Amino acid sequence: xxxxxxxxxxxxxxxxxxxxxxxxxxxxxxxxxxxxxxxxxxxxxxxxxxxxxxxxxxxxxxxxxxxxxxxxxxxxxxxxxxxxxxxxxxxxxxxxxxxxxxxxxxxxxxxxxxxxxxxxxxxxxxxxxxxxxxxxxxxxxxxxxxxxxxxxxxxxxxxxxxxxxxxxxxxxxxxxxxxxxxxxxxxxxxxxxxxxxxxxxxxxxxxxxxxxxxxxxxxxxxxxxxxxxxxxxx
Amino acid sequence: xxxxxxxxxxxxxxxxxxxxxxxxxxxxxxxxxxxxxxxxxxxxxxxxxxxxxxxxxxxxxxxxxxxxxxxxxxxxxxxxxxxxxxxxxxxxxxxxxxxxxxxxxxxxxxxxxxxxxxxxxxxxxxxxxxxxxxxxxxxxxxxxxxxxxxxxxxxxxxxxxxxxxxxxxxxxxxxxxxxxxxxxxxxxxxxxxxxxxxxxxxxxxxxxxxxxxxxxxxxxxxxxxxxxxxxxxxxxxxxxxxxxxxxxxxxxxxxxxxxxxxxxxxxxxxxxxxxxxxxxxxxxxxxxxxxxxxxxx
Lengths: 234, 297
What we know:
- The complex is a heterodimer of chains A (234) and B (297).
- In chain A, 40% of the residues lie in helices and 26% in strands.
- Chain A is of the alpha/beta class and 234 residues long.
- In chain A, the strands form two sheets. A six-stranded mixed beta sheet of chain A has the order 6-7-8-3-9-10, sandwiched between helices.
- The model of chain A has no long low-confidence stretch (mean pLDDT 89).
- Chain B starts with a helix and ends in a 14-residue tail after the last helix.
- By secondary structure, chain B is mostly helical.
- The A-B interface holds A 49, 51, 70-71, 74-75, 79-82, 86-91, 95-96, 98-102, 129, 131-135, 138, 145-146, 149, 162 and B 166, 169-170, 172-173, 176-177, 179-187, 291, 293-297.
């Protein structure tokens, strides 16, 4: 499945935060969305999830999704793991995973097994409330929960936020494995170096617009990253 | 068995029977509160309208079970409708707004009942034949057994629904974190409407179980609402099983206090559970079984 976004603009109330966004995420690709805080990265993901009003074009294969509801976007296979993990703290790990599924019990078991193979710690924490997990475990649960929905496009917003360096590296290896399974990944990450290491394509965002795009080595070598971050800070 | 112990056990059994009614109302209160954060003061009068409706259908010749099923179905529509029309627009407003609207619904429904069914007090048909059973000198009536059986059935159904059905899990997820629920394709509003509908059924069941033992009046559900609020607060406003335990505790405390504390007697019996709630909240501010969600960062 291919996600093709063009002329996307979105914002909150009457204010437009992002403008003229164009990007493509193909099967198995990892597209890194880089930019300083406030550049509009999260707004793009929220717009693609149908959480906030948006205009432009969002094609999923050849289907126009711009007027589709958030629920139907999830059903179409575009899954967003929001910043701050967003797990259900009062539900156990197992319940967090089961709450996502609407398919048969056999399908649920198969997906649960697959998610637990990627994140074995979740099986050990199975009956523990999600709110009692460590930050890293909650992040793993959030990604596992998204995988239960059989995503074809997975959008991850700051998955490594607040994680210890070793867990961060482990998580990024898992993201690479998820993409290797044919799932397209749109990744927002403050740690540009880490995301460029696993990305197949990178986009640099500044003040709500894409200011550079290309292969990770092109973006990393051009000096535009530092420029975008410094300009935004200024 | 010594006579004193026999009296004590009799009061406990009768307290459990009363407590079952309070528990059913408390569960209704908790279902609404844990999904939408609203304390629905109108639940008693919603139940009242359903009791009168069941009575009316039976008076017109409908078989009693059918009349009750129709009234419970009406309760679901009423609860869901109130959420959809009156409460949803107030979702992000201060909690006082919802509380005031709920009180308004309380008054309107009460007046509707008074208008449609004015005058003489009415008798609700018995739900089961009046039989008395005796074990070790403790008498238990068939209606008491029905009350306890219905409450046990409700508790089991609730446990199964919230733990073992996807719909129940999704309802818990939506109330736990509505914003996050949207990201996995849950529409919290639909589930909140369902929660209100279910809670109205629980309240109506409490009312219909109470109805055969008293004359129908427009004031009959108010004490049950107050006891239900006590039970829900005592058990924990976010825990339906805590509400059931709270209901039983309130019922037993009320009976024992009115029997053994002469200055309370039957006039001041409602004071006993209120004092119990006050003391319990001093030590457990979220109720005996209420939980504060842990969140590690």
